[in-house]
Amino acid sequence: MTARSLFLLPLLLAAPVALAAPASGDLALVQAHLRAVESMTADFSQTDRNGKTLTGVLTLKKPGKIRFQYQKGVPILIVGDGKSLWFLDYSVGQKQRWPIGNSPLGVLLDPGKDATRFAKVVPSFDPRILSVEAADSKHPEYGRITLVFARNEGAPGGLMMQGWVALDAQNNRTTVRLSNQVFNRPVGEQMFRFNEPRPNSHRN
Question: Is the distance from CB of 80 to CB of 10 less than 8 angstroms?
Fold first, then answer.
């Protein structure tokens, strides 16, 4: 699994979902859900195009913070610290940085961003499921993502995010499934700090 395919998960997570312009119908439900979520933790299972699966824990806190903590033995960490999104590879002692405001991730963490031109509802045979697809024609390098929600009256805005399917610019597919979602519980700032990666170092 390449660093690029790992990075696509948080980068594309939010492409369709926070709508600054007036929305209606199911898109309005998605908007209401995102605005109602101040923090979230969830277990995730990530499967790449070769069928390799990694697991871990996702932590999100507005404004601008997110963390993908992979399972023990995977020397990768992805952290958004409120200003930048960091991809950290402790096995080779390297890190990469992307400004959050310049990526679709900013839409998830800043509901004021306008993504209406990216989003469309995908028809579903199951009325309990709501799928939203997004792609930015001006930035094909972002790829394409389909977010999947289940209608759930007990969840914020009446929706529970179930996961997403991301296609990168090379049409490589990554599927993420979420479970054990917990919303709007206190999340400490230490979750969005990290050790500097160095050769033979350990992730934080």
Answer: yes
pTM here is: 0.80
Q: CATH number of the domain that 85 lies in? A: 2.50.20.10
Whether 201 maps to a domain, the answer reads: no
Q: Which residues pair with 182 in a beta bridge?
A: 41
CA distance 189 to 82: 10
Task: Determine the structural domain holding residue 17 and report its residue range.
Answer: 3-183
- Separation between Cα atoms, residue 187 and residue 172, nearest integer Å: 33
Q: Is residue 122 part of a domain?
A: yes
Q: Look at the chain and report how many structural domains it folds into.
A: 1
For the chain, which ranges sit under pLDDT 50?
1-22, 102, 104, 203
What is the Cα gyration radius of the chain? 16
Is 116 among the domain residues?
A: yes
Length of the chain as a residue count: 204
Cα–Cα dist 35/31, whole Å: 6
Contact assessment for residue 68 and residue 78, using Cβ atoms and an 8 Å cutoff: yes
